[in-house]
Amino acid sequence: MTIAVLSGLVRPLVEPHLPPGIEARWYTSVEELLALAPEAEIGWFDLDKKEPMIAAVRAAGNLRWLNSIYAGLDFLPLDLLAEREVTITNGAGINALTIAEYVVMLMLVHAKGYRDVVRAQDRREWLLDSPGKIELAGSRALLLGTGAIGGLVKTRLEAFEVEVVPVRRTAAEGALGPDEWRPRLGEFDWIILAVPATPETDAMIGSAELAAMKSSAVIVNIARGAVIDQEALVAALEARSIGGALLDVTTPEPLPADHKLWSLDNAQVTMHLSGRAQSKMFVRSAERFVENCRRYVAGEPLGPIFDPARGY
Question: Do residues 47 and 23 both lie within one domain?
Fold first, then answer.
């Protein structure tokens, strides 16, 4: 019998559908997880806090397959998981739809000055003109990150007649290669970051990249806060050398209450809510996990696979 240690939060969605051969043991607290982890051949150890997840992985010496709802798992002891030859499936694509919708929302809010409209309503003030006059149609967006999220962002923006130019690992028609996008930053109205968090993407947008952008360009980050040199971004926003920043992610998180980003009128901070602006995350995750359980028992490949060496 294969032992699966799983969160009690998904029990109603998973338990009735588990295939024969898998025996589930459910945890509802950190203490229960840490007690059960050594028994797990299959583990779904997700918690709100990273430290006990790390401790559970370290304790799970019999683990063969680790599943997670999170897409980014760089906080886990990846070297240990690779050494133990643990198969890892992550949440890539689970929240892609809602995050893509969030990108469009952020861009429209900026383009139409909608924050000022809401504030005027709060003051019961009847505005006589729109505080924002930008149209998405006819603008150009550079899309860094062409995974599940990036793909959905592209199709949605194209419906608004935005020309979207993706960056791919190899140059292709309508796309830029990894060494081609920096010299062309000044051609775009929107810079959208949807890349995974890896050493390669750490601070990929720094002072040089910000200086190369149009003075009206807006950067949209739904990747990880570390992808941008945040101090350089604040300096660019204060100098108004770029048009704005729409940030679902920051460094650190939560952002300290006295951080400058909160008070800059050309920055929007949305507290890493893009993936949470939905009600189907656990349903999608449970359905994917149950299908992978069927595949595991049948000896078929699991997916999507997280590669510890690549970091995504």
Answer: yes
